[in-house]
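A quick word before the example. In earlier lectures we treated sequence and structure as two separate objects. From today on, think of them as two lines of the same record. Here is Deoxyribodipyrimidine photo-lyase written that way.
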Amino acid sequence: KPVVLWFRRDLRLNDNPALYHAVATGRPILPVFILDRDPDRPAGAASLWWLDKSLRALDDSLRERGSRLILRRGDSLTQLQSLIEDTGADALFMNRLFEPAAFARDAEIAHELKSAGVDCRGFNGSLLARPGAVLNGSDAPYKVFTPFMKALLATAEPPPPTTAPRRIATPDAVQTESIDDWRLHPTRSDWSKGFDWTPGEAGADAALSDFLARGLKTYAKGRDHPALPTTSRLSPHLHWGEISPWRAAQRARGAADAGAVPAGEADKFVAELGWRDFSAHLLHHFPTITDRAFRPEYESMPWRGDPEGLEAWKRGRTGYPLVDAGMRQLWTTGWMHNRVRMVVASFLVKHLLIDWREGEAWFWDTLVDADLASNVQNWQWVAGSGADAAPYFRIFNPITQGEKFDATGGYVRRWVPELRRLPDRWLPSPWTAPPEVLRDAGVRLGKHYPHPILDHAQARARALDALKTVTGRD
Ligand code: FAD
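And the structure line, produced from the sequence above:
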């Protein structure tokens, strides 16, 4: 009897524990992907763009091995039941999802199927450690990253690497849908023309190899400079499980062991992968953080309703070049550099005093790496309301951040080309440039590029004032 292999966010054949164990049964495999409404939050548009390509890549890899991806759409349990009925399968193997609603749904599905005699097995294929496996001395979840990571590294065992099976036997004549009918790629106006990505397992592997050869050796410092290609850009690949985080960590450590890069650089990279796990563990243990402040006192923050400010932020028209560059990079490519994510998020939450949930929702729709746990955790980190958060009173200065991390203006010039002829010195704050400098650079503020929509010092004072309602302190 065949085994159903339910693909979700583990779209790879190497290091895939569910696949490995399913093949080890020696029985025919039914690889299936079900397009269902995500019970935690429906996927955003950029995520669906990615999914479209990643599923096609997975299908190609399966076909090279004599198999293929079966596509179904609708309620997951109903679809699994019908697949099991159609094929006589009596086992279901899957890699677990750890978001709260998906986790609960999977448990219900397993319960239903088990009572119908189906053997259900779940594995961890997406995180360094399974949530629940890294707890403090009182068996409670960690709320601070550093001890969490220390405990994770001390306890979690890297799974032995496994390579894709050469052949996967899949029965013929199983009903499948066509991915073209799913229309996951934007149809009306195609906003994805600037998306420069190769979704799929081969793309993930190439991104990692490229990073090990070029970015890793200067990662710890270089990762803060958005004009440099120093980070891995693995985030969407990791989100969709096209590569396992252990594989990424071990290849980075391997480069250090071989003397190709200093050990500290590899450690820093592994620590960033740890933030991904930390976010997932937090969300798993504290499910309300998707829409409630982790620190409840932050629910009294006097957020402003400011549709115009929000729109200027989304469109990259705030008049603050580093903020605008980031928001335009996001819209054009579906991704934004981490340093700039922190700056734009802080600008929204503190300078504009707009609720972090508005920004989180925009990121959710536009990021190719949109990940519920990482997105929410990072937004709450910036807003000061998260578990291990930056204090709210530390307000990123969008001007000095530009001076420090984009000193020669490569990033801003790329994404805000109307300012490209402005000398470096004035680039982070064009409104301070003397009129002749602006004229020589061909910039008319208010015409080619907006005047700043707010004054930094005033906005900072307003944000600190708002904080008093949270802390009760004057
Ligand atoms: P690298 O520097 O190469 O890091 C390697 C991997 O580590 C990343 O691919 C990612 O999986 C993980 N990682 C790195 N930094 C973080 C972090 N701070 N939190 C969690 N994981 C991290 N990341 C997402 O994957 N999805 C999101 O939806 C998301 N939303 C964010 C929202 C805000 C406001 C901020 C400040 C950060 C957000 N991040 C998110 C984290 C981070 O910006 C991205 O993971 C990173 O920029 C991805 O680029 P990279 O793969 O080149 O990172």
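Notice the following. The chain has a mean pLDDT of 96. We will return to this example when we discuss secondary structure assignment.
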